[in-house]
Structure formats: structure tokens, C-alpha cells
Amino acid sequence: xxxxxxxxxxxxxxxxxxxxxxxxxxxxxxxxxxxxxRPPVVEPEGEQVEEGQIYVELAERLGMIPEYPGS
Length: 71
Prior knowledge:
- The protein is α+β, with helices and mostly antiparallel strands.
- The longest helix is centred in the last third of the chain and has 11 residues, at 51-61.
- Strand 1 (22-29) and strand 2 (32-38) form a beta hairpin.
- The chain has a two-stranded antiparallel ribbon.
- The protein has helices at residues 3-7, 51-61; strands at 22-29, 32-38.
- The chain is extended, with a radius of gyration of 17 Å.
């Protein structure tokens, strides 16, 4: 727990940069762009999940995701 987490009302179980896939765009030689994809280097401990999963679950619980019509 960090100092910020101790003062927080909610602490979401997001993975750290070492526990998740991450990507970055670089513009070293304009107009060419480079993309760097970094894999996780350690396994997450506990209940950490990807940030996107946290956002989707929050949106679902807040009723922000509309119902899709049946096919």
C-alpha cells in the first residue's frame, strides 16, 4: 500500500506495468512512427486484473453500457 492508497476510499486491483502488456508509440523520424509492445515480465499476485476489465465492469454496474439488439 502506498501513501496515496492508504488515503483512498477505493483501491482498484489494477496490474502494474511489470504485470501487463503495454504499448507505446514513438515518433523518432517523422513521418515514420514506431510502436513498441512490451510483454509482462512477472506474474501478477493476488486479484489484479487489466485496467480495461476494471473500466468495463464499472461501466456495466453504473448502467452505462447499452443493451445490444438480438440477432
